[in-house]
Design brief:
It is a single chain. By secondary structure, the protein is an alpha/beta fold. It is built from 16 helices and 32 strands. The strands form seven sheets. It has a ten-stranded mixed sheet, with helices on both faces. It has an eight-stranded mixed sheet with strand order 15-12-11-20-21-32-31-28, sandwiched between helices. The chain has a four-stranded parallel sheet with strand order 6-5-7-8, sandwiched between helices. The chain is globular and about 75 Å long.
Amino acid sequence: MTRLIGVDVGGTFTDVVTFDGVAVESRKVPTSLDQSDGVAEAVAGDARDTFLHGTTAATNALLEERGARVALVTDPGFEDLIEIARQDRPSLYDSFADRPDPLVERDLRFGYDGATDALAADLAAADPEIVAVALLDAYADSGPETALADALAERLELAVVRSSAVSPEFREYERAATTVLSAYLTPSVAGYLRELDARLPMARRLVMTSSGGLLPFAHAPQAAGRLVLSGPAAGVVAAAALGRHHGFETVISFDMGGTSTDVCRISGGTPSVASGHRIGGRVNRVPSIPVRTIGAGGGSIGWRDPGGALRVGPRSAGATPGPAAYGHGGAEPTVTDANLVAGHIPGDLALGGTVRLDLAAARAALGRLAQDLELSVEATAAGMLEVVDSHMEHALRSVSVEEGTDPRVAALVAFGGAGGLHATRLARRLGISMVLIPPLAGVFSALGLLLAAPRTDLARTVMVPEGAGVPAELARDLLATVERTFRDTFGQSPSDTMASADVRYAGQSHEVEVPVVSGWDELRAAFETAHEAHFGFARPDAPIELVNLRAVASGRAPMAWADLPELRRDAVPQGSDGTWRRESLPAGFSLDGPAVVTETNAVTLLERGDRLTVLEDGTLEITT
């Protein structure tokens, strides 16, 4: 039987989910220093299976600044564009907050004046590992940039990344910065996927992109910048599928793992995809699901700052040595240790079925911090949980309240190994009355890989004033191109294509994305509805202009939510002392808090006033 194998690599654990057409199996193993080693050891399969991967290879290379030595070629006088950037500050009132240093050193930036041979000689002397080419007008006419890139690749025998291939839209800084970032990541991503590719027997191997779509391994190195949100995007895809299945118009995904927490708001059953993403303070203008990530997870370390205040994160104990409670040599107090001391995690629980928790080690680690803070161990544990909850509450508000939406109308979908421990407290802080804990909550992002569809995204800047041409006809050529590109990439025709447009009032410097419709009247109506929702006003008498066209082609996902097996109703619930085993709870079972529900890879905490109901697909529905 052909199997689907999803593997999501996190900062602390690597999650594996397999589906053989009937049953779903899962497991969690520690993430290895060399990710390809851990993935290859965690997976067993053959050539008939399909391997689906969420990776942090690109993210880690960027955040740890382990990328390639990049040379930038642009127009004369624009060599410093990536350093000048936009005239906005990372933090308006913090004079100590600086932008990250450019990814290209000053002596590796070159202006191209038409003398290709001289440029090639200068580049050869500079000895870069890869070249990024970003000519000013390449978004409108890619021909000169393509010719230059081909010539340099032939002369230097190096990989050359073109801005017209990476981000073919106007705004020269964002296009150049995105091209440089992609070039910076290309060798490490290509090396990782090449090593992994050689060790996997599966004939079909795909990796998740930041847009929530799948891409074959062979095409991923050319789109390295599109893998930065590979893992978090998979969790959002799964949360969207869960929300659609249960009929929720709006859900907020809350993925709390060992190292970080990822949150995202999903409306209408489908994650939105935009192109204004930043990672580590750097522009990465590629199609991305708008995930907000913070350094707060089960492994986040508690510490005392110079002012005597209790802090938590962003530093994490990771997989090695991990929280003190794991008994692997960790000595610093983590959120997991705090949850164990607070009684939120049963002391006899074996995480992943193998890791026995050491309450004494957790208390000892917290005790050292408690002494510094002049608090009891219990008060220190409670304080750590309050601090980390505050961080996560702010993240949830940033994707709801700060974007002009009311979180109280949403359901909170909580997953990751630690998501269920904090979900109901956070829901109450935000006024959310419904929490959903999905099946396979501890490995839910890996399940999301099986629910994701193959996808191709294209964009083109057109700058068309209102009334010129017909919007639907303007998009026809790009739709044909994206369909052809999808076919070339995946060897099959897409099951769906759609076009959208970035529209603005004439004179504005920002756009709103809306679906492409037949005529200008319909486009204006859609734009003004979206503009008013985003900004609170519309200007019916002002002319509009169509700035960018976007097209998406997608295939069928390997698996649908409805393929998950339903729970038996005749199972016998097993629990004692307020602790229940999730796998024993039948569909229709209800439970009032306080209580704890444990499973192999996650724990769910019910507080007083919470009521849990087990749904047919195994989802835990909690009303707060």
